[in-house]
Give the backbone structure.
Amino acid sequence: MSVEPGRRVAVVGAGVVGLACAAHLQIRGYAVTLIDPRDPGTHCSFGNAGCLSRASCVPLGLPGTWKKVPGWLLDPKGPLVIRPSYALSVAPWLWRFRQNTTLERVNAIADALHSLLDGTVVKWRPLPDRAGVPELIRQEGYAFAYRSEAAFLGDALGRELRRARGVRIDVLAGGEIREFDPALAPEISHLVVLPEQGHVPNPLRLSQALAQRLRAGGATFVAREVTGFELAGGRVQRVATDQGPVETDAVVIAAGAHSNALSSQLGSEVPLETERGYHVMLASPSIQPRIPTASGEGKHFATPMEEGLRIAGAVEFAGLAAPPNHDRADVLLEGAKRLFPGLAHGSVERWMGHRPSLPDSKPVIGRSPNAHNAYFAFGHGHVGLTGAPATAEIVGALIAGETPAIDPRPFAAERFSETGR
């Protein structure tokens, strides 16, 4: 099939962000090649909690978060673990993270994330509709369940930041909680319900459907490892791989936790860290939450999935190479049984993946400052699934020479070299 000159785009990475970018580009008439050594959607995109959350405009680092870190590190069942062998490696990232926890920075970050995540359910719908799986986008809300008054009050700033950006939040107590979801533990004192949020009951099937629709539209999938780029005149001419080059007119780097190794070859080195997360998938659960529900203390989500009940969460810093520590997954299972004390189940599958995270909780989206036909779409941390469609809209507009509806400047790679944060 002949391709119009200038219309070839290589997308490096076939996770949900790369697939969304490819879908938007294909709709615009570009000939898309996706390059990834693994099958589409089988990395971090496979194992997430499935939430579509415009409420995730709140950054991970808030004023006072830093003071909680020592306690978390001393608790083997806490929400954050740093492997001792990796402590020195992650220290610069943690310092930058701390610099972004002032109230001024938090509000600026929340504004930027809100611009990216607002309307995510509406923005998502056309892609699974086009792929024939509209049932995979649900808008039923999700909830945070708190045992203690202290934990509930400790999250007050997060609720304030969300409400200030138009997120609806309902707080239930006492009998209202039991009426809303009788399966919750009787010790739950507050249930914070965000009724306008969405979720995907099978993230892998969503990725597979997007990939199938891309293939049907003429996209090419290349199972190769990208090793670099061949440039001429400030433009990428070819994407170098372990099995030979791929010629292209533009390239999108959407390679998740591996993206910095590629962007740095284009002169944009960013402080990307792999924030390892875990899940357990419970077959044949005796209880399914009414809606996805998280522990307010443990910050792990219990999400009803097509294959069972998924308990996902935890943060572990240990790098890309270290083997999984499935004790972290077992902590999630223990937490789920405290949240839903009647929970019984069949087989248990444990999983670990690498969230690509930046110290200001914002992804890198936009044009490379050094290679004029290279574009970045990575570093989404906890909001890859939520932020994928808006990221794809930005990238598609930039490649087409249009002004994106969402201002990409807060997500520019240059922000780290300019501010040091």
